[in-house]
Amino acid sequence: MSAGYLPTPVYEYSEHDRGRWVAEAPKNPRRTAFQRDRARVLHSSGLRRLGAKTQVVSPGSDDFVRTRLTHSLEVAQVGRELARYLGCDPEIVDTACLSHDLGHPPFGHHGEIVLDEIASGIGGFEGNAQTLRLLTRLEPKVFTEEGGPAGLNLTRASLDACTKYPWPRADAPAGREGAPVRKFGVYDDDARVFEFYREGRELGRRCLEAQLMDLADDISYSVHDVEDAIVAGHLQLADFRAEEAVAGLIDITRAWYLPEASDEVIVSALERLRKASYWPRDRFTGTRRDQAALKHMTSQLIGRFTAAAEAATREEYGWGPLGRYAGSLVVPEASAHEIAVLKGMATVTVMVAEDRLRLQEIQADVLRTVAEFFGEHPHAMDPMFAADHAEADDDAGRLRAVIDQLASLTDHSAWTHYHRIRAAGTDLF
């Protein structure tokens, strides 16, 4: 510890915060309830599957690019540091960051859109709501006294921290115009556990730990998606000196991330980033020196955004420990605009590129084909989901079991099922 450094005290969490949906016998006193929560997520099958799920570029297409697992680990590191700065329990924020993408299906956000279409008659699909379902029902760990699944049975504080959108679909805000999936955090048939850990909390208000997770996610994917796009050859920062490239960036940033922002606001954010001493000036050629310069930029940008949020929050609330509902995270407007511009760079060069859109059409066919097959041949699903299908009371419950199975698939396993179905059809089973 350096001379003069005093760590921020940790917010005092209550026994109510440490309560679990299913009561458990006392555990090893050397580990806190929140440390056990993190360990349960870290050892979950859902987290392992993220290693083969698309972040931006499909896994296996490049040895460098991030998967949802490596992205989640990076989010956890950023979130943990933010928690330490502000006095939240780092284990809670770490758990939320590791969990935040658990419910996302194969093929990235486009896979989420396809599953939402398939499930439109039963309440839809949303990756964050699926995360809660996985944590509280699908991941095998704990069962209720009645014999039903209770998922990982995390504490109230950890489940609350994992909830990015604390409302059901019926109460979901419209979001940006034209957004294909409305963001919400709980399906109707998971309402009981949602009410358990949200008891007494205002609908829509997020705890501080959830806010830290959300910012860590925004920082990580804005910075790292740009890095991945550069290394994969999709993006050159030097191109954004050209008027046409800047115009395209303005359009996509406004359409996807800053709907109310003027051209001047977006351009100003871009210029602030370009004026930074660590912003690469030359075209990326893949040399070791270029790689080092790019990594230096990502490190500096993460520090830039976390430090700004910490300073703004401390200015608002002082220097005592913060946690749960004792204060809110303050993100300076300038930082939010810069993060949005970085997201726009990755989006305009990767996510809406023509070759990417064609791939999305193919991936949609994969998911629809596998969904139809599982609906007609549920015995072909994994045993857990096949049992859920058999025990369901109605068609809605049976379709939800199919959706749960599809969401659990990795990109690779989705393709494997598709090719086997196309090659052999029902004769395979």
Kindly describe this structure:
The protein has helices at residues 33-42, 45-49, 68-86, 90-99, 108-118, 127-138, 156-161, 191-198, 208-231, 243-256, 263-275, 288-317, 333-351, 354-376, 383-391, 395-408, 411-424. With 429 residues, the protein is an all-alpha fold. The longest helix is centred in the C-terminal third of the chain and has 30 residues, at 288-317. 46% of the residues are buried.
Kindly report how far apart the N and C termini lie. 61 Å
Which topology of the largest domain does CATH recognise?
Hypothetical protein af1432
Low-pLDDT residue spans: 1-5
CATH class of the largest domain: Mainly Alpha
Q: From the alpha-carbon coordinates, what is the Rg to the nearest angstrom?
A: 22 Å
By DSSP (H or I, 4+ residues per run), the number of helices equals: 17
Helix vs. strand class: mainly alpha
Helix content: 55-70%
Mean pLDDT: 91
- Overall 3D form: globular
Shape-level CATH architecture of the largest domain: Orthogonal Bundle
CATH homologous superfamily of the largest domain, by name? Answer: Hypothetical protein af1432
Whole-number tally of structural domains: 2
Beta-strand segment tally: 0
Q: What percentage of the residues does DSSP assign to strands (E)?
A: under 5%
The topology string of helices and strands comes to HHHHHHHHHHHHHHHHH
Please summarize the sheet with the most strands.
Answer: none
Task: Give a brief rundown of this model.
The protein is mainly alpha-helical and 429 residues long.
